Every structure is written in C-alpha cells, then in structure tokens.
Amino acid sequence: MRKVCVVVLSRANYGRIKSALRAIRDHPDLELQLVVGASALLEKYGSAVDIIRKDGFEPDARIHIIIEGENPTTMAKSTGLGLLELPTIFESLRPDVVLTVADRFETISTAIAATYMNIPLAHVQGGEITGSIDDSVRHAVTKLAHVHFPATKLSGERIIRMGEEPGRVHVTGDPAMDILAETSLEIDNDLFKRYGGVGPTLNLKKPYLLVVQHPVTNEYENALAQINETLHAVYDFKMPTIWLWPNVDAGSDRISKGIRMFREKYGPDFIHFFKNFSVEDYARVMNNSACVVGNTSSSLREGAFLGAPTVNIGSRQNGRERGANVIDVGYDRNAILAAISRQVEHGRYESDHLYGDGKSGKRIADILATCELNVKKRMTY
Amino acid sequence: MRKVCVVVLSRANYGRIKSALRAIRDHPDLELQLVVGASALLEKYGSAVDIIRKDGFEPDARIHIIIEGENPTTMAKSTGLGLLELPTIFESLRPDVVLTVADRFETISTAIAATYMNIPLAHVQGGEITGSIDDSVRHAVTKLAHVHFPATKLSGERIIRMGEEPGRVHVTGDPAMDILAETSLEIDNDLFKRYGGVGPTLNLKKPYLLVVQHPVTNEYENALAQINETLHAVYDFKMPTIWLWPNVDAGSDRISKGIRMFREKYGPDFIHFFKNFSVEDYARVMNNSACVVGNTSSSLREGAFLGAPTVNIGSRQNGRERGANVIDVGYDRNAILAAISRQVEHGRYESDHLYGDGKSGKRIADILATCELNVKKRMTY
Amino acid sequence: MRKVCVVVLSRANYGRIKSALRAIRDHPDLELQLVVGASALLEKYGSAVDIIRKDGFEPDARIHIIIEGENPTTMAKSTGLGLLELPTIFESLRPDVVLTVADRFETISTAIAATYMNIPLAHVQGGEITGSIDDSVRHAVTKLAHVHFPATKLSGERIIRMGEEPGRVHVTGDPAMDILAETSLEIDNDLFKRYGGVGPTLNLKKPYLLVVQHPVTNEYENALAQINETLHAVYDFKMPTIWLWPNVDAGSDRISKGIRMFREKYGPDFIHFFKNFSVEDYARVMNNSACVVGNTSSSLREGAFLGAPTVNIGSRQNGRERGANVIDVGYDRNAILAAISRQVEHGRYESDHLYGDGKSGKRIADILATCELNVKKRMTY
Amino acid sequence: MRKVCVVVLSRANYGRIKSALRAIRDHPDLELQLVVGASALLEKYGSAVDIIRKDGFEPDARIHIIIEGENPTTMAKSTGLGLLELPTIFESLRPDVVLTVADRFETISTAIAATYMNIPLAHVQGGEITGSIDDSVRHAVTKLAHVHFPATKLSGERIIRMGEEPGRVHVTGDPAMDILAETSLEIDNDLFKRYGGVGPTLNLKKPYLLVVQHPVTNEYENALAQINETLHAVYDFKMPTIWLWPNVDAGSDRISKGIRMFREKYGPDFIHFFKNFSVEDYARVMNNSACVVGNTSSSLREGAFLGAPTVNIGSRQNGRERGANVIDVGYDRNAILAAISRQVEHGRYESDHLYGDGKSGKRIADILATCELNVKKRMTY
Predict the structure, then answer these.
(1) How many C-D residue pairs are in contact by the CB < 8 A criterion?
(2) pLDDT value at position D35?
(3) β-bridge mates for residue C34, sequence order
(4) Which residues contact C28 (CB under 8 A, 6 or more apart)?
(5) What pairing do the DSSP bridges indicate for beta strands B271-274 and B241-244?
(6) How many other C-beta atoms can be found within 10 angstroms of the C-beta atom of residue D58?
(7) Which chain D residues are Cβ-neighbours of A85 within 8 angstroms?
(8) Where are the domains of chain A?
(9) Are D63 and A88 an interchain contact pair (Cβ–Cβ within 8 Å)?
(10) Whether CATH 3.40.50.2000 fits C2-175+358-370
C-alpha cells in the first residue's frame, strides 16, 4: 500500500488536482495523505481548505507559510517557510511518494523537501512554457522530480529533451479536465447566494463576461496600470460581468487596490466581484460565459476543453499551448475591447482535448500505484 | 558599477570561487558584496570565514542556517532557513547580480531567493553530472539561473541542451584551477604546526597518501560501512597518510564516528587527521601526495590539472568528467588497496586543462561586468 | 558613544516611541539604530515605515515577519519568525542596548533576541495592567529587561514588586505624551485629502466621534459580534464619525469583515473610514473629537493628557490606570449609545499628567546615555 | 479526558519530568501527548529520544530546532525556530494544557506558543533563583504560565510575590526526586559496556569523583579558562573520575575543546568521559560517588535528597537553594582541590527533602486532572 502525499498550497492547485485526489483515495493500492497550506488556508483567498473538506478530504496537516507583504522578498521568504515546515510533516507522515502540482512559487518548497529527504517526487503539469517566472519554477521542479505527469504531448517531449529519463515521463493529460467531463455544467443564479461577493445580482441566463486577471510577478510594479486597462475595456463594453479577485502573487495588492479605486470612482452597476468558486462552479461560470477575459491559464486549458471564447491579455501565458478559442492582446483597453466584441460575436468553439480527455486523475493514480519509485535518476546525456 | 553579491556557504564553495572573488573585487566596473554562511561559519567544519577574512575579504553579512541533525530532514530545513534569511540580506544589499557556486544542497536557497526577487542569478559550475543528489540541485539551479559559467565544454553543451539560451552560457573553466596556476606548490612540514589536527607528525618530503571521503547523501545509511572499507585499505597499505574530516552532508556524523571508532580500536600511528586547509595548502598537499584516495571531486578536477594519481571510490563522482589520472573502484578494501598500489607505482600524470586553464576568475569578472543581465529568459524549444 | 537600537514593529509602537527616537538621535553620546518590521511595513496597516522615513528616520534594517492568517497560531509563528530574523540583525548592528516598546505580541521576540545575545534590554511602558493577553507579554518582557522606563508611578512600583532591582526602574512617563505637548493640535479638513480612506468628507469644525476598536486576542472568536454593537450604537447616534481600521491582532479580519458587511448593508453616509494617521494627526483628531469610542489604550493615555471624553468598551483596557475622562461600558449597543450621549454632553475634561508630562523622550535618552548597562541582574527576594 | 502535551527539549528536561510523564499517562482522566525536540534528538547530546522510547513513551511529534553555532546568536535563533514549529504541532494535537519544564533557553518557545494560542500553560520548577540568564527565562515563563508547579516552598512564595494568583501555585516538589525514591541505587561496572565513552574502565566499588561542568551562558567567553581550573584540580586529586560532557548552551564547544586539549596533553589515565546516562544510572553514579564536582543543579537538587557531598564551582548555581551537602568555591584549582578533599573525607550527608519527597509526579498529574484551566489570569496587585 503506497502512501501518496499530495501538497495543496492554493485554490488553483486544488482545482487542478481534485480528480487525482479522489482517484488516489479510492485506489485499492494507494493511501492518500493530504497537506493543505499557504493561501489555501486563507479566507482572503477563498479558504480553499473549506471547499476541500466539504468535498470529503480531511487534511492530515496544515501549514501557514504566507508572510505578509505580497512582494518578491516575501514570496521568497514564504517559500523558505514552506521548506522549514514540510520536512517536519513528511517525517511524521512518511509518504512513499509526494505529489506536487504545477508551478506556483511556493510549490518548489514541496519539491525540495521531498527530494532532499529521499522521497520520490511526482510532478503534475511539468514541461509547459508560459514566459513568466513560473517557467523557472516549473522547470527547476522538473529537474528535481522523479515521476512526471505532463498534460500535453509537447510538454512530455520537452521534459525528455531536458534530460529526464523517458521511462519516468507519463503524458496523462491535466486532471483539471476531468472535472469538466464529469460535472453538469448548467448554471443557476444561486451563485450569488452561495458566494456572496459584492455588486449587483446578475441574470446568468443572459450573456455575461468572466474576468480573471492575476499579477505578472516579474512585472508586478505595473500591476496597477495593467488592471486599469482591463477595467476600462470591461466598463465600456457594458455587458454584465463576473470578476474574480486575483491570487496571492507579488502585485496582487496593487490589482486589488486598482479594482477598489475603480469601484469607488465609477461605481459600475453591472459587475459582480467574487472571491472564489468551487472548482465545479468555476467550470460552470466559464462554460456559460460569453467570453473569458484576463490572463488565467484556465481559459487556455479548461477553455480549450470547453471551447470558451477567450481574450488573453499580456505576457502571463506567453508560450503556453493554446487552441483556436484564444485571441491574444496587449495591455491596451481598445485592443481588449475589440477582442471581446469579436469573441462574443463568434460564440462557442469546438471542444479540443489538447490538455486532457477527462480521464487523467485515474491515470495518475494507476501509474503511482505501479511505477518504479527510484530516487536515483540520471541525466540521459 | 555593478554590485555582484557572492554567497559562500561552505569551505568548498570558497575554494572554488576565491580567484573570482578577487577578480570581481579588483574589477573597475564591479563592486563585490560577500555573504558567508552555513558550515562556512562553523568551527567544526574549519571556520572558512576565518580563512576568508585572512585572505582580505570582509563579509557584508553572515547567516547561521545549519540545523543540527545531519540527516535529510535537517538538510531540507537548513535550506529553508537559508531561504528565509537571504531575502532580508538581498533587500538590504540590493545587488545587481547574485553569484552562486556549484551544487551543495543549501545553495539552492541562494538561487531561489535571487530569482524570486528578480535579481539576475549567475551560476558557476553548472551542467556537470555526478550521479548523486547534487545532480538534481545543480540542474535545478541551472533552470533558475540567468547567466551560466560552466567549467567544461561538455557541461556548457548540456546546459544548452536543457533549453537555456546559448547567449547566456559562457564556458569559463573552473576558477578553482586558478589557485593551482598561481601558487607555489612546494610543501613543507609547517602544516602540522599551522593546522594542528590529531595524530603523528609526518615527513611530507617522503611519499604519503591523501584521503578525503564524504558521505553520499542518498546512501547515507551505509556511510559507516563505506568508510570502514577505506579505513582498512589505508591501514593495510601502511604509507603515511593525511586524512581530512568529511563535510556537513547527511551521513557525515556516521563517517566521523567510523573514523573515531577505528582510531580507538586500531590506534594507527601513521595517519594524521586534519579538519581543514587553506585552499593553497590543500593544493600543495594534493600536488605532493603519492595518491589521492576517496570520493572528493577535487581529485578529478584539480587532480586533472595537477596530474595527481587518484583512486576514486564509490558512486559520488559517477558521471563526472575525468582525465587519465583516475582509477575508479567500489566500496571494497581489496579493490581500494590494489588501486592505491597501482597509482603509487605509476606516479604523477600529465597536466590536463579539462576543467580550466587557470584564468577563469578573471574571465568571470569580465563577463559579469559586461553581459546583459536580463531576468526574462525563455526556453529555447 | 552608545549605540541604541530601537525595534519598531507596529504603527502604535512608533507613535509611542517617536519623541524618544528623536532625543536619542540628537543626544551627543548616543547613536540611534532603527529596525522596522512586522505590520509597520505593511500597506494594509498604514505603512508606518513611510511615516517614519518622512519624519527623517532611516531604518537600518527591515524585517518581514507577519505570517498571514490573523489567528493565534500565526501570531505565535510570526513571533518566532521575528526571533529568527532579529539575531542576524543585532549581530550586524552590534548595539550596546536594545529598546523595546510596550506589549504587542511580536515585541517579545525583540526582548528574547537581545537578552539571549547578552545585549542589555530597555523596556518602555512596563508594569501596566490591562487584563488581556498583553499583560502576560508585558510582564514577561519586564522579567527579561535590564532597564525599565514605566510611564506611571504605580507601574514602576509594580515592576519593583515583581523582583526587579529598584535602581533599574526609571519612571519617565510615556513618550507618547511628548507629541501632544509639542504639536499644534488644531485640526483642518485636509485630512481627507492627505489620507484618502473611504466615505464622505466630514466637516471637522463641527462635533464628530472618533472610533477605534481592536480585537481582543483572547476573545477573538466574538470579534464580529462585538464590533456590531459598536457599529449599531454609532449608527444610531448619527453624529459625523471618523473610524480607524483595527490593528493586526488575531481577530482583526473579523472586525474588518464586520465593518465591511455593515457598510454594504446600511451604507452609513456620515462615517469616514481611515487606515491610519501620522502620530500628530491622530492627536489632532482625538483632541478635537466630541468623544472617543472603542477600546484603544490611547484614549486612556493620551486621552488623559488631552482631557478627551472617552467611552471605553469591553475588557481590552481592564486594569489600566485611567483618569476622570473615561466611562466604561460592555459590548452592548444601548449602553454604548447612552455613554456617548453623556460624554458629548459633558465635553472636554481637565488635562491629567497621569501618563507623562510631555518630557519623557528626552528623559529616556539621558538615562540611556548614562545608566549602568549590566546584563547580570538579580531578583531582589 | 484532558489532553496534556509535554514538550521535552533536552535530556535534562526528560530526567526532570519522567515520573510526571508516567503519572499523566497512567491517570484515568488524562491523555499524554509528547513532543520531543532540540538537543533531545541529537546523538551528540546523548539522543534522549532513544531513552524516552525505551522507557515506553512514543513521541507524537519531533522538532529539529537547534541551529549550529553554539553561540548566543544561534541560541536566540533556535528558540525562534522552536516558536515556528510548535504552533503547527499544537494546532494538530489540540492539547487542553501544555506542560513545560524548568528554564533552558529554548523552553520559552513552548511557553509563548501555548500562551499565544490560548492553551493553558503549566510550568514545573518556576520561582527558583540561580543567578544566570536562566533566571530571566524562568521568571518570564512564570509570567506567561497559568498553572505553577514549583519544587520548594520558597519558590512558590516567590511566584506569588511576582503577582501570580495563589490559587494557581501548587508546591509539588520536583518530580526528579521521584526517580531517586523508586530506583535501586546500587551501582555496577556494566556502565562502561552500556555507555562506551572514552578512557579507562574504572572500578566503581572504590571511591570515585563525578564531574559535570556546563558553560555559564553569560560568561561563555571564559568557558575555556574555567574548565581548565577544574581539569587541573581533578588531575591533581588523582582519584578515579567519571566526567560528563557539557550540554548544548553557548560555550559548550569551548568546554569540549578544553577537555580535548587537556586529554591530548596530559593523557590522564584515571578519567573516563561519558556522553550521557539514563536518568536512573545518573542517580546511581551520583549516589555512589565520593564527591560531585562542577556546576550542575542536580548536585544541589538530587544531591540534597541523596546526601551527596558536592563541590559547586562558580556562579551558575548562585541563588539556588541548597542543603548542607554543598561547598561552594570559585574558578580556582587550589580551592577546588581543597574542597574535594574535605568532602571526600566527610562522606555521605543526611537525606534532605528540600526539593521533593519522591511523590511529585503523581501530585502533578492529579492537579492537572482537576484544576481549573483558565487562560485569563490577573496580576494580584
């Protein structure tokens, strides 16, 4: 019985890995261990831990590691704090393999803790390219990991080109797609009751925009100016809009401030701001939106599967594989506005399995149950 | 005037980078900032900081980060502690570029702190392969670094194959070779007065062995058995021997214990144990030894330059480039003994510039003064 | 020339110690070293560091130590982080004496770091009693400190009764009073321009309330209900009101949430919310208010000096010495409302020098320049 | 069923609390939780954790917190690390009360973590006076603690004089005495087989000295000179001697170095050095020794109960209550030598119950099961 310890450090992490968590828990040869920490514990970022528990997963440990400041210094220090906490927890849980997800800054602490402690490390979503600091984190984690679960064929090839042994690379697709395949994606207006937020109640049976724009960590000083362009474009488009608050990266306080200042000044009466949704509700909101606007990877990934018309702003997703559903624009209110118009007019795209076919979680669990777990890896050249 | 911050976390780090430190300090367009920490501060590991100061370098900051335990858990936690401390220091020193050396476990904290804080990171000695956990650290640091100073042509090619932009890769040679080129390598018996240690005073004008054997971090549970084989081989060879205590990795306490137990039991009267030498004295000791025994990378690297006959034991240097001066053996007292005999008989080898021509420090400083320092890097495929 | 290192970890700390900072800096036999950290660095809590720099003090070091969560677990951990950071800084600054202020949870890290490093510790504002967790912190710091600067005669006597040597106890008064004595306390409406905040612009020449209510750390689960009572009382009183956001203690997110919910629901058009004022502006706002409402110690301390009518709510100030200007009430909207009415009707009280005569900063600097600094202290019984 | 969490951070802590651990575990209304950390985990300090487990206690959590350096800076930082680790563990164990022991520097992290998390804190051995830095720690912990278990009547009175509520103070005696009362104190020579150590095997049926000398933390720069005086006195007395290595405080490396240098130089053939004993064996060794020499508190405490002739050197025990069995001397080889002679001649003293009657552990458990556990405490004046 292999003990698989999954470390979830943000709400995005959880959305990405949820179906794999379930498949691991339900696998006869696996035992699930769950560590929840960082922004996944914070009310300010939507208390992912509450959603996780409501979904039936009880954390074996919790780690508070986010040092306030939301700047590059505290990003680094928070990661250091993670790396102080996780070894104590791994020593107590004694997992046979640790599973880490994607590329957020603090996830490298999971990778280092496991690797240094001679615990095999599995990594979901390696090999992708996006053009941000996340690239460095993601590829560094790849060089530490012992088992790779890339989402796309191209990502898998990149991992092998980086010198990883091909036998350790398993193209499983992204487990985030599984949720889309399983869930009824019809939307209802209870959303407003369930999640609160601020702003008017919208009629989601009518066309609406979904906006999700995060700070770009190596451009964080421009975060305020960048969000302003999007705010003005959306304000001018005048379609009912669901807007999600940004994540915890350096710069997020500037984005939040920008949004708050805009609200005070323009008091837009057709935009509703939410902190967070469950994974399923987020899928519903995206699936029924007339257009997704911002720079979230989900509109390229889940968006491909759902065929959601997307306006992708700025450099955050540079280099990430994308399907036909995406139009790219710069930080410019006019360009953003024009792209939104085009996408709303075009409507829904064909579903594209680029990032997974909806069966990835099960696949990951099966491989974890049977693959060789060997910490001595060799570069292939 | 670019501020170059060099972070030195062990005596080995310092030996490796010393000539570059000098070249940076003396360069008209560079300002040297020096952070010294981890085992480089500890008496137990030879107080490298004292040597550093005697060499005329005054640390701008010191960080105590080694958590006691000498096991994989504390290795990970110590690295986390480094990652908590360094951002505070970088925020205060505001370097234009951070220089990190090689691949010891705690050095990844330097790499992450700099990268997350958007400070360009230069890395000396990337691209090598050794077969130990250090490989993962070294390659992960490569994926974080913005400027690469590999020692050998082959290492440089590997870095490029890993997806790094070729314009960021500069094959400079290893600055550790510079010391060898500059120093008078004649030996005298003052060594015993200067460094103390325990055991008899040896006549270094006559043939002697040099033994340096570190723990292998992912085999650390066997460290005691492994060192015993070497101890018996050396004991049977009966040639005067200089033996260096191991470094601070997981397992070093077992090696130390093994040595102490052996001493208590056999009381060998021809072995002298030292804690540490200055970089120059270490070169002298190696240059004049009849044979170097153990698993230190220096016998492959400096050993090539000096033509020092070497018996390399076990897996620690697997995959590392080597010249004609090395015979590889397993953890077996008979094999070790036989190889020592052969090497002592063979005597000195030709000098081989595989790892550098003795001018690397200057080269590194010149590049740091002029190269583009851009934190936005892209994978090349 | 004695080096005096003052550690300021919150905006309240700074307000309390400002005049002493100036007196130390200007003293011919003293050199001021300043460390700023914790919530004093955070925009969310009013970026005290910006005010400090505008006042002409340049921090020698900054430490980010607040771990997000705002609960008892993260309060403890943040203190631990302070205790990891400060020794590195003290080792670099090498102060002859460290000065710590009052009793906030994270200040004990300053006290421990200094004491353990054999650096004499001076403590401003020991010996008081308030009935909250702060009592334990304050008295524990007293038992660590080597020089005591209590504000009141009674506090000084308590310190001596706790076993401290009388020769180490100097009743100096609270330096916070100095600001009141020196500053022109006339108010103008530029406040709204200078500090922004949210809500209507008020006419401060007419009567207004000042509300400052912090969470009570060992009742933090009731913070939401407690703030609601105050909100309703103030809402019913219908006098223009200046309201300050709470500090960073456990429970502050609940208070913030309560305020936000109230605003969304009732949209009060006569309350203006501010994040923070400079020390001087805060004194002006208090001095001109018709009544101070809440649980801030400043309304008992500065309030006594200014004769400001005060309604003190709940247990947070239990046991603190108070003058005639204070009416105490429980967490009950009706009682609060009645007390506000009475105080507004009563108007200004006589000035009371209970907490200082306005010359404390100078007194503290003089003593620090001349007193014996001996870390070997003995309990007197 | 109350959950009592005991935090053991050194071998001395464990010896002191062992009988209480057993009584808590066996109490029908209590559940024992055990956290072991700091030097109690380190081989170098005798791996107390191994003894603890052999005694049948399985730790619920382990924390590595000792940062290498053995100087005041790392003492402070190690305490900070403890304060980072313990809240995570308390959050997971959810104890109803935390029990902390005595006064070593790192124990204040236990006290702060519990107090800040609103967990009632019980403290064993408060109220004593010794004249060292430990005094400050001990009294600061008293001001944080909610339940006090002093060893002596005088200590209990001091706690009350410091302002603690009398109802919270229970004079239980020191549970370390319980071991003495229960154990057969006959000695045998198997000691040398069981504990190894270095030096000759001694005949313990004949008179021997026991030496235990720790560094004095605020005199740690003189540690080397101080130990030298003792070494010479013992060397001159020429009686077979059992010598214990010092604990982990600042200065211990200097003492260790002093001992090693002395050994190399004089090669005394009648001194055997041990790292550590079980609590019982330590009692046996003390009980049968002709004289205890050094500065350990055990020779004043356990020594009183056993009537062991004691020569107490220097300032470390200043102010500690003592019985008739103790002669105090300064750091002077002649004075030490003379005192040893007098004590050996005098022989065994009467047993004195000053520090406990041998039933303290049970008493502590009974009180913990029934006392009010209220975190809101008030100073009594």
Answers:
(1) 152
(2) 98
(3) C6
(4) none
(5) parallel
(6) 9
(7) 84-85, 88
(8) 2-174+356-370, 182-355
(9) yes
(10) yes
Neighbours of C341 (CB within 10 A): 14
How many Cβ atoms are within 10 Å of D235's Cβ, its own excluded?
Answer: 16
Q: Which residues partner with A93 through β-bridges?
A: none
CA–CA gap between residue B241 and residue B238 (Å, rounded)? 8
Q: Which chains border D (3 or more CB–CB pairs < 8 Å)?
A: A, B, C
pLDDT computed for residue C351 by the predictor:
94
- Confidence class for position B278, pLDDT limits 50, 70, 90: confident
**Rg of the Cα trace of chain D?**
20
- Asked if the domains at B2-174+356-370 and B186-355 fall in one CATH topology, the answer is yes
Beta strands in B134-253 (DSSP E): 147-149, 209-212, 241-244
* Closest-CA residue of chain A to D61: A92
CA–CA gap between residue A97 and residue C26 (Å, rounded): 61
Cα gap B308→B305, rounded to integer Å: 8
Cβ contact D131–C87 (<8 Å): no
Asked whether the beta carbons of residue A198 and residue C44 sit closer than 8 angstroms, the reply is no
| Cβ atoms within 10 Å of B188's Cβ, excluding its own | 12
Residue of chain D minimizing CA distance to A91: D62
* Chains in contact with B via at least 3 Cβ–Cβ pairs below 8 Å: A, C, D
Hey, what amino acid is at B299? S
Of C68, C73, C264, the CB nearest to A68: C68
Q: How far apart are CA B282 and CA B299, in angstroms?
A: 11
Q: How confident is the model at residue A240 (pLDDT cuts 50, 70, 90)?
A: very high
Mean pLDDT for chain A overall: 94
Task: Give the residues of chain C that fall short of pLDDT 50.
Answer: none
Asked if the Cβ–Cβ distance from B67 to D81 is below 8 Å, we say: yes
Which CATH homologous superfamily contains domain A182-355?
Glycogen Phosphorylase B; (3.40.50.2000)
At D12 the pLDDT is: 86
Say which residue, B249 or A266, is predicted with more confidence: A266
For residue range A321-366, list pLDDT tens digits in order. 999 999 999 999 999 999 999 999 999 999 999 999 999 999 999 9
DSSP helix/strand/coil, B293: strand
Interchain proximity D64–B66, CB inside 8 Å? no
Q: Which chain B residue lies closest to D70 (C-alpha atoms)?
A: B42
CA distance C273 to C328: 24
The C-alpha of B69 sits at a distance from chain D's nearest C-alpha, in angstroms, of: 6
Phi, psi of B115 (to 5 degrees): -60, -45
Class of domain A2-174+356-370: alpha beta
- Per CATH, the number for C184-355 is 3.40.50.2000
Of A76, A90, A161, the CB nearest to B163: A161
Counted across chains A and C, CB pairs separated by less than 8 A come out at 43
Q: Do B61 and C85 touch (CB under 8 A)?
A: no
User: What is the pLDDT at residue B178?
Assistant: 95
What pLDDT was estimated at residue D137?
Answer: 95
Confidence of residue A81 (pLDDT cuts 50, 70, 90): very high
B81, B143, B218: residue with CB nearest A139: B143
Residues in chain D with CB shorter than 8 Å from the CB of A87 are 64
Would you state the pLDDT for residue C380?
87
Backbone angles phi, psi at C198, to 5 degrees: -125, 150
How far A284 CA lies from chain D's nearest CA (Å)? 35
What are the tens digits of pLDDT across the range D126-185? Answer: 999 986 777 899 999 999 999 999 999 999 999 999 999 999 999 999 999 999 999 899
Q: Give all chains having 3 or more CB-to-CB distances under 8 Å with chain C.
A: A, B, D
- According to the CATH classification, is domain B186-355 in 1.20.1530.20? no
Q: How confident is the model at residue A250 (pLDDT cuts 50, 70, 90)?
A: confident
* D191-355 to CATH, choices 3.40.50.2000, 1.10.630.10, 3.40.50.150, 3.40.50.11540: 3.40.50.2000
